[in-house]
Design goal:
- This protein has a domain of 245 residues: FAD/NAD(P)-binding domain (3-Layer(bba) Sandwich), CATH 3.50.50.
- The N terminus is likely disordered.
- Strands 5, 6, 12, 13, 14, 15, 16, 17 and 20 form a 9-stranded mixed beta sheet that branches. Strands 1, 2, 8, 9, 10, 11, 18 and 19 form an 8-stranded mixed beta sheet that branches.
- By secondary structure, it is an alpha+beta fold.
- The chain contains 11 helices and 20 strands.
- A hairpin with a 5-residue loop joins strand 5 and strand 6.
- The chain is globular, with a radius of gyration of 22 Å.
Length: 422
Amino acid sequence: MNSNTLSSHAPQTQDAKQVDVAIVGGAMAGATLALGLKTLSEELNRPLKIALIEAHKPGSEHPGFDARSIAIAHGSIFELKRLGLWSKLAHLGTPIENIHISDRGHFGMTELNAEDFHLQNLGQVVELERVGQLLFKLLEASDIQLHCPETLANVEAQTDCQLLTLNDGTQIKTALLVAADGVNSQVRQAFNLPIEQVDFEQVALVANVETDKSHDNWAFERFTSTGPLAVLPMAPLKGNPRVSLVWALSPGDAKRLQSAPQDEFLAELQQAFGFRAGRFTQVGERFCYPLLMSHMPRPIYHRTVFIGNAAQTLHPIAGQGFNLGLRDLVSLLDVIKQSLLEEASSAERADLGSAKLTHTYLKSREKDRNSTMTNIEFLVRGFSNDHWPLVVGRSLGLRLLSWLPPLKVPVARTAMGWKSVS
């Protein structure tokens, strides 16, 4: 979708397609929502017309399904099971059974272990490109109206619908519009809605790295003076152990290391991380992403809801970006389900884009969104600072988690992606 041509006003035609829900953006959040709506429709035996508009077919060139890996937390797996999707995705996952958290150069460290919480794992790591290909196949096999590759040219807010015009001329009238089109949401820009941003002046360098020993399903979070460095377990490649690296760096260091010779890159990585994951032996293609935290104060509009990265983006310090976005769409599904259940006991057809529905969704997400974002900003500021009182405080905090296991419970709940309500 081209922000230079997208308009919030478009002429209406008589042959516009009528749908209940139209989703703009078919990456993780949008595709999962579409399939979740399909499952809900079958569960309630209530047909729903669903349209999904996505600009790219899945693959490494898709900005939402690129070479990155993400950690799907335990709580998110629970929700994906509820949506009937995890059984189809499970074979793509590598379990996280233990998490080691440390502060480079200082005495603070702690561990989270699945067995301490009577669980098989704390979450699973998946490669976005492989997940994207599978979700796309599921979409193609469904009766969801899939417009891909296709972009949105215009959107017009009307009393009883949002009228979408695609670049191929197709028009869609939808009771509810869901914007799942990422951090630079063109739907948000079309309606000129505000967004708050925090620039951490960091860049995430992301790569897959081979090691000389098995990761044994350990994940590592190491805090350094430049920012966090995370290593996640991955499935082996041609028998060679692999991990997924997310390394927060200054823009200058990220640019230098992205193009550095492999030996130089691996040496600096080894120095920054240490040898807990073994020796790093080979690195794949390196990608860089600016680290911003964005937040829509009100992720709703007339007959419109914003979810996932269109509503907020997080620093990857706790690996909670997708997990928070999944809680967005699960909450939306719950609100839609309640509306459809009320329809079944009344004579009126449910209006899925009503102000009541969008405001119920807004209220349901307020505490979790605000608490999660506040906590993550605190972590970023607190662990990217070498001011001595902060160093002592965070080191003692990590040690206390090791000495007093009950204190680990709220930390573990966050790591496992369970809703934050503090």
